Amino acid sequence: MQIQNKFTMPIGVFDSGVGGLTVAREIMRQLPSENVVYFGDTARVPYGSKSKDTIIRFSRQIIRFLKTKDVKAIVIACNTASALALETVQAETDIPVIGVIAPGARAAVKETKNRKIGVVGTEATIRSETYTKVIRSHLPDASVIGKPCPLFVPLVEEGFAKHSITEQVIDIYLSAMKDTDIDTMILGCTHYPLLRSKIMAYLGDRVHIVNPAYETAMDLKAVLSEQGISNMSGNPGNYDFYVSDAAEKFTKFANSILPYDIATTQCINIEEY
Ligand code: DGL
Fold it and tell me: What's the 43 CA to ligand 1 centre distance in angstroms?
């Protein structure tokens, strides 16, 4: 058994389900020596239609679980939980906890020329206006147009990302956005990067698409380095996957997203934490 020290301790990454794998994938790409423990709350997905209190309760349970794995930092790889629970859990946790919203908002602020930014996400993320608040903290006169796109999540999960029905749904949700003069659009939900090429084709070249996963991994890198806890071993990281239900379905989905096949996913009872 490997003895963990502050460098080799894993990064905990969690999401309501499979979507956070788009963030985990980016962490693995940018920080290849870091060990990762991923938890997907597949028994209780979707978070996007739930209340703030429920999402805080779920996030606390998952953080308690991840801490049993001796994680040195936690990434909330879920936009909804980042929008509604990050501040609360950050204040109660003694290790760094980072979310995906601040990095995504910052990337959009860097990118926009005309200060008109679109944000797509779950009902809860858009309703919270967290992206708008963070964008305006950098760019007070920014105009931010939010649009919930709840059907994108099941379309991705059911394997319809490349199907023409997805184009129809994109048209229904984004036709009004397309008529505005936004020059930047944030994919503010973990599943949406898997629809990136279709959304890009629909909105055209004048709209720059931001996937917060890239900037989130950069933020994590900076936090680990500031705290002096980066894993500099040069060895490839170990990855462990846990879910609260349907482990086999998760493994299949993960193998279609990650650049390698995962061996097993373990199922745990998250209500015990
Ligand atoms: N992971 C969620 C997010 O990024 C999307 C799926 C859900 O609604 O739970 O907002």
Answer: 13
**Which CATH number belongs to the domain containing residue 186 in this structure?**
3.40.50.1860
Could you read off the pLDDT of 68-115 as tens digits, one per residue? 999 999 999 999 999 999 999 999 999 999 999 999 999 999 999 999
Looking at the fold, whether 122 and 67 belong to one and the same domain comes out as: no
Q: Are residues 84 and 165 in the same domain?
A: no
Q: Exactly one of 77, 109, 153, 189 is catalytic; which is it?
A: 189
Domain final residue pick, 197, 212, 227? 212
Question: Does any ligand 1 atom lie closer than 6 A to the CB of residue 191?
Answer: yes
Contact indicator for 131, 104 with CB cutoff of 8 Å: yes
pTM over 0.90: yes
